[in-house]
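Session log. Operator J.P. requested a structure for one protein chain; no other inputs attached. Running the standard single-chain path with token output.
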Amino acid sequence: MADTTWKEHGYDQWNLPDSVGRVDEALSVVNQAAHVFSYWNNHTERIISDSLRDITDELRYFTGRVNVVDPQRNLEDLGTRNMEFAFYVVNARMERVESWVRRRLNGLWDVWTQAEQAGHPNAAHVLNSINNIVEEIDEEPDTFITGTETWDIPSP
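Structure written below.
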């Protein structure tokens, strides 16, 4: 979720009438990131790896056929381009998820610390929830690590 969307949802404000509901939504968004990685690593990593390989093979075949039919075109290997995209775009974005999660949690912590100082009746509970999520992430250092070792990706 982009910063603008985060702000549009009011997740960085504690003094709105429904701020507790909003922080619950924000924490749900943050938790979803961890759950996606857990599901990916435990259930779909092999499927994604096989799919990437199949798509790459088809793109390589297509490139070869185009170059046979129209040799002047000299189309570069689209299979390699696909795997470069997986490495430089998809993998790079996945590597930034943990810092995004921590930045969001730190921001929520700061907002709700202000709320606690201002006497918000639910601030202590919200801060405790944020702290619990941070502890869970800290206890499992591989939360945001994705098993990409089976991807046939060129490394830089």
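Operator note: The two ends are 28 Å apart (CA to CA).
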